[in-house]
From TrEMBL:
It comes from Lophiostoma macrostomum CBS 122681. This is L-lactate dehydrogenase. The keyword Oxidoreductase applies. PROSITE patterns: L_LDH. Keywords: Coiled coil, NAD, Oxidoreductase. The keyword Oxidoreductase applies. Residues 10-147 form the Lactate/malate dehydrogenase N-terminal domain. Residues 150-312 form the Lactate/malate dehydrogenase C-terminal domain. Belongs to the LDH/MDH superfamily. LDH family.
Length: 332
């Protein structure tokens, strides 16, 4: 890590619902000197900066907010990518992913060269797949590229279990692991309330039906919110701000984050120690046989999507090369 900087900055790429909510959270709970917003929609960008700037005048925040370029973002301490295409009616998941990968590629091209100490945080979905490709496109060390993954799903798990058990959510120790999506799973065997195993704390109430109800709640929460209001922003904005804090303050906090798993060949969420250099180390977690199978199935599904996306990208590249080869040479 380079010498200590007197000023710290967080760049947010994409100032839609999630990006602007994250920026507002960073203003209300300042952890950096400067928040840089970047978005190709210039009118929206300027309006968000002016609106958010008004929130800095109340006198008890030192954080400044400004519009910036991708080049500016590439020199920030933390870069948070919230930008991504929305799915069109009838569009396949792979096709949507291909569009988002093209956006991701253009972002890294515009940011280059990226400061070698920058930490990259992916929020845009599908977050596990985009994190996998971002580690290749960015040129940054594996430990400095991570996704929010199942951090919000795990927070939802703590919330609902806290309600059921009649305790504060922060007293629940439990993780949703794997994909931030349909194949995610709860590591029930390691869940505790304080130091008390969940099986002992809940007793006969911890039935298979209870577990399925909780799993369905955590898995379907985002879809239910989106169906009613069109997006989720506050929960993920708060989670992303917390992750930025753990990084900049080198807090060495353990959280479930999406990062590269060499033995599984993909990025998915597992517990990790988070600090100023990104992923400091993976934290081993004991899984039972069912949970191990869930993890393997999750990784298999993600690898299948990655392979499909790589094939489509290869086909696009070959088509582009064919067009360029057929283009007549410009006469001098």
């Amino acid at each position: 890590m380079s010498e200590h900087k007197l000023k710290t900055s967080i760049a947010i790429l994409g100032c839609g619902d999630v990006g602007s909510t994250l920026a507002y959270t960073l203003i209300l709970n300042p952890i950096c000197s400067e928040v840089i917003l970047v978005d190709p929609k210039k009118e929206l960008l300027e309006a968000q900066v002016r609106d958010l700037g008004d929130a800095t005048y109340r006198g008890n925040t030192g954080a400044k907010i400004r519009a910036g370029t991708h080049k500016d973002a590439g020199q920030a301490d933390v870069v948070v990518i919230t930008a991504g295409a929305k799915q069109k009616p009838g569009e396949s998941r792979i096709s949507l992913l291909s569009r988002n990968l093209r956006i991701l590629s253009s972002i890294f091209s515009a940011m280059a060269p990226i400061d070698p100490d920058t930490i990259l945080l992916l929020v845009a979905n599908p977050v596990d797949i985009l994190t996998y490709f971002a580690r290749k496109m960015s040129g940054l060390p594996e430990s400095q590229v991570l996704g929010t993954g199942t951090s919000l799903d795990s927070a939802r798990l703590r919330g609902i279990l806290g309600q059921k058990a009649g305790v504060a959510p922060h007293s629940i120790m439990g993780y949703v692991l794997g994909e931030h999506g349909d194949s995610q799973f709860i590591a029930w065997s390691s869940c505790t309330i304080g130091t008390t195993p969940l099986s002992l704390a809940l007793g006969k109430d911890l039935t298979n039906e209870f577990k399925e109800e909780i799993a369905e709640h955590t898995r379907g929460a985002a879809a239910a919110i989106i169906a009613s209001k069109g997006c989720t922003a506050y929960g993920i904005g708060n989670i992303a701000a917390s992750i930025c804090k753990y990084i900049l303050f080198d807090q060495r906090t353990v959280r479930p984050l999406s990062f590269y798993q060499p033995e599984l060949g993909c990025c998915l969420s597992m517990p990790a120690v988070l600090g100023r250099k990104g992923i400091i180390k993976a934290m081993p977690i004991q899984l039972n046989d069912v949970e191990k199978r869930d993890l393997e199935n999750c990784a298999r599904n993600l690898r299948s999507i990655i392979e499909g996306a790589e094939e489509e990208l290869d086909a696009e590249q070959k088509l582009k090369e064919a067009f360029e080869a057929e283009r007549p040479a410009v006469q001098s």
